[in-house]
Give the backbone structure.
Amino acid sequence: MDYEASAHAEPPPIRRQRAVEVFRNRFGVLFDDEVLSPSGGQGRYLRWQWSHGGVVIVPMGEDGFAFVPTYRYPIGEVSLEFPRGGCEADEEPAAAAARELREETGFDCAPSGLRPLGVIHAETGLIESEVRVFAAEVRRAGPADVLSTAAPEAMESVAEPVWVSRTEVAKWLQSGRVTCGVTLAALSLALADVSASGSVPLMGECRPDQPT
């Protein structure tokens, strides 16, 4: 909601008194900040800061949307998600999105073939870093094409993309098949974009990368 353009009052901020770093690795920094509440009470607030911004890609085509079955260690089960990850040092978001798409699905797409859909925050109560959302028009491929070219990271466990039509995706949401917050947010932006344009906008088609 745009509070500046709204008749609703804007809530007062929780103010940071001191940033307290408690953990750091190559992916980011965890803070346990000393804060001051709107009522004047002192407390602590956890805050995670990624080393670099994140990206999520919505693969779409004539067959609908492509979801990647991904085993997620924190929840101990497989989650249907869109490809996503973080930017490397000095890497532009579009380039990172093209790289993550290729690594997790095998679809080879130039950064110019991606279209930005917006920005989301994965968990506003904990993570301060933003995630940029991109749409990629892709062509469905056989399992052999995808599995031979996808190259997930060592600590990632993914299977071949699963396609769902635009009419069936609503049933997936109603049945709770998709629970990843980042994926749900990205899907909402994609559906709003498709609804506003009347159809999926044509971009440079991304195809499964062919090994040389």
Notes: The chain has four helices and 13 strands. The chain has two domains: 3-50, 54-196. The domain at 54-196 is CATH 3.90.79.10 (Nucleoside Triphosphate Pyrophosphohydrolase).
